[in-house]
């Protein structure tokens, strides 16, 4: 049996996936988690063969969970299931040792096949996600600009961003203005949305 951990903060999706995977003769869901930290705890406790991780979860995201699992439980293969993908996200996932990268629109039957592939040391990257990632290209943002946009993405004011980044408000404005100019965005909020859609944050 292939022992699987499912991690997704959307309970309905996670529950439906668990039920559908339970119909497979060679797959058993040994643990479920609703956050990145819970996923790590469940992986440590249940030692699954494959971790199926949502890209975006509360706390740690799927990529950071996969990176930790590679260090702590190298026998556990990780795969990302996402509705948000871009060049940056795909590259980060592959760098973290993720062996599968699939959209949430995949059927349960296909997901089971991909779990089997990943379990036998194979790799699977959805061709549409890969094409989208390639089309998005490399990020024009510097690491500091990307960091400032990430902090601005939830609508935080400049003063709060400056406090969190230990920078002056003027310096933060300069980084955000430069990032917005590079992305052709009228303000930092639009710039953050564009960068996130392209997988650069």
TrEMBL record:
Organism: Streptomyces rhizosphaericus
Pfam family, one: GerE
Record's protein name: Response regulator transcription factor
Gene3D superfamilies: 3.40.50.2300, Winged helix-like DNA-binding domain superfamily/Winged helix DNA-binding domain
SUPFAM superfamilies: C-terminal effector domain of the bipartite response regulators (SSF46894), CheY-like (SSF52172)
Keywords noted in UniProt: DNA-binding, Phosphoprotein
InterPro entries: CheY-like_superfamily (IPR011006), Sig_transdc_resp-reg_C-effctor (IPR016032), Sig_transdc_resp-reg_receiver (IPR001789), Tscrpt_reg_LuxR_C (IPR000792), WalR-like (IPR039420), WH-like_DNA-bd_sf (IPR036388)
Record-annotated HTH luxR-type domain positions: 134-199
SMART domains assigned: HTH_LUXR (SM00421), REC (SM00448)
Domain Response regulatory: 3-119
Modified positions (4-aspartylphosphate) in chain numbering: 54
Molecular function, one GO term: DNA binding
GO BP term, example: phosphorelay signal transduction system
Alphabetized PANTHER family for the sequence: TRANSCRIPTIONAL REGULATORY PROTEIN DESR (PTHR43214:SF42), TWO-COMPONENT RESPONSE REGULATOR (PTHR43214)
UniProt key word Metal-binding: no
Top-rank lineage group of the source organism: Bacteria
């Amino acid at each position: 049996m292939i022992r699987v951990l499912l991690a997704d903060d959307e309970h309905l999706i996670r529950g439906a996936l668990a039920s559908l995977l339970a119909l497979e003769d060679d797959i058993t869901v040994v643990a479920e988690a609703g956050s990145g930290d819970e996923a790590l705890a469940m992986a440590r406790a249940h030692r699954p063969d494959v971790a199926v991780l949502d890209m975006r979860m509360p706390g740690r995201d799927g990529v950071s969970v996969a990176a930790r699992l590679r260090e702590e439980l190298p026998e556990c293969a990780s795969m990302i299931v996402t509705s948000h993908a871009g060049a940056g996200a795909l590259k980060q996932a592959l760098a973290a040792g993720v062996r599968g990268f699939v959209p949430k629109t995949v059927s349960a039957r296909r997901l089971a096949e991909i779990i089997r592939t990943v379990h036998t040391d194979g790799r699977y990257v959805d061709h549409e996600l890969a094409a989208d990632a390639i089309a998005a290209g490399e990020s024009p943002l510097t690491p500091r600009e990307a960091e400032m946009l990430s902090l601005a993405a939830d609508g935080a004011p400049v003063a709060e961003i400056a406090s969190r980044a230990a920078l002056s408000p003027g310096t933060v404005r300069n980084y955000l203005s430069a990032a917005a100019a590079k992305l052709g965005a009228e303000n930092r909020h639009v710039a953050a949305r564009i960068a996130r859609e392209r997988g650069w944050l």
